[in-house]
Each structure stands twice: as C-alpha cells, then as structure tokens.
Amino acid sequence: MGVLNHNGHEHQAGPIGVDHARYQTLRVAFDTDVCSIQIHRPEANNTINNQLIRELRDVLEQCDRAAKVVVLEGLPDVFCFGADFREIEATQDAEGLYDVWLKLAEGSFVSVAHVRGKTNAGGVGFVAACDVVISEGRAVYSLSELLFGLMPACVLPFLIRRIGVARANLMTVMTQPVPAQQALEWGLVDICAEDSEQMLRRQLLRLRRLSKEGLSRYKRYRNSLDPTLTNARDRAIQSNREVFSDRRNLESISRYVSSGKFPWEA
After folding, report:
1. Nearest Cα to 95, choosing from 50, 144, 40?
2. What is the reported pLDDT for 6?
C-alpha cells in the first residue's frame, strides 16, 4: 500500500498512478483496486474549500477508471464539517462539489463512507452520496445551514434520496445533531459499529471480490432507473449561489468567524 500526502514522502507506485506531491487536503492510499481517501484538513476542522474540491475530483476521476472500491473518511473526531467559513468570501465551487458527490453516487465503483466524530452541512452531502455508509457509534450528523440564513441546497437531492423528504426536512429545519443510531434507523447510515475500522475491514473483504466490469454495468443500470441527482443539479447549484451571494448571510458568517457569535446574538 502506498500513501500519498502533501509532503510527498511515499513513492511507491500503484494502479491508480496518482502524482504523490499533488494533494494538500487529502491523504490517498491504494491497495490494488481499493482506493482510500482521507479528508485531511485538521487545521480547518476538515472543512471544504475549493482546493479540496479540485483534489477530490482529480482522484475520483482516476478511481472511476481503475478502482473497484473507494473509501472516503475524515479524521477521528470530525469527518467533514461543511464549508470553510474562513474562505466564504471567495466563491465556493458549487458545481465542482456537486459533481464530486455525483461521482461518488454514480461512479463505476462502490463508494464507502467511513464516518467518525462530527459530520455537518456539506459533510452530510459526502455521506448521503456514498453507496455504503459505515458509522462509528459516537458519530453525529447535522445540517446547520439555516442558522446562518443558508440552506443545504446541493446536499438535499442526495439526502432526500437516502432518507426521504420528511426526514431531510426535519434535519434541515431543526439543525440539531442526529446521533449515529438514529441515522441508522433513518437510513442515512447502513452499518453502525463501535469499532467501525474493524467493520470496514470486514466489508472490504467482501466488496473487493466484485468485478470492475460487473460494478460498472450495475451502476450504469441503477443510474438509468433514477436520474434524480442529475436532473436536480442545475437547480441545486442555482439555489446554492443565491444564498451564498446574499450580503446579509455573508456578514453573519464573517461575524461568526471573527467573534463566534451566531446571527441572533446581540
């Protein structure tokens, strides 16, 4: 197995052929036809910025050609906490992010989210997009967007497909964390285990037996049965741009970053 990170210390060649020094927000490992991707922005609470989006798109394009299984995980205490508010004045690549989730959902591989700790906002988008979600028992899932006048515009098509309109609406309007066991009952999580790493290893033993050709054929067929995600893309991106271009929302976010105060606090 080779590990790729921004330090470029790993130089072992692998079937995916990734440039070892290319990624600064990810750690990528490969073992034959299984690719493991770790979101690695500990200095930013594993939040999403445009560089992360670009790097994920690059890796997933290569996985679409070569990998049978893609495992996406975060840090032990936080999977992904949504948009990086420190960079919110720069326009986030909503199209690119939606396409990353679309690739996780429709790519010719099995996408597995391994979730530990906190998952919020856009992090839920990553989870909802994956074929299989393995969650640590202490993980929590939340959508905080409405607290800042935003909305999970790009997340919702993926989340609704996972858990239905009513529960996606409840997560959106309540903005409260949903514990892993509740997420399991709702269908956001497929497998919940206290030792999620051991559970992941067990599932990979089975998944890697599948053929790339069989997976590609199955995913094409499944996508043809439900074109919801593709059809919702333009509307989701337009709605995302609308809330992120509202000056009042941006001012609320900027104030939160500088002072830690929510919009309703004096």
Report:
1. 50
2. 34
Question: Of 33, 55, 93, 145, which is the active-site residue?
Answer: 145
pTM over 0.85: yes
The answer to whether the Cα torsion of 126, 129, 134, 140 is positive or negative is positive
The side-by-side arrangement of strands in the sheet containing 178-179 is 78-80, 118-120, 140-142, 178-179
Say whether 58 is catalytic: no
Summarize pLDDT for 2-36 with one digit per residue, the tens: 333 333 333 333 445 555 568 999 999 999 899 99
CB contact at 8 A, 80 and 136: no
State the catalytic residue, choosing from 73, 84, 99, 131.
84
Domains of the chain: 2-195+214-259 (3.90.226.10)
* The dihedral sign for the CA sequence 82, 87, 90, 93: negative
How many angstroms separate the CA atoms of 174 and 91, rounded?
27
Q: Cα–Cα–Cα angle for 96, 102, 107, nearest 5°? A: 120
| Residue-wise pLDDT tens digits, 193-246 | 999 999 999 999 999 999 999 999 999 999 999 999 999 999 999 999 999 999
Active-site annotation holds for 84 = yes
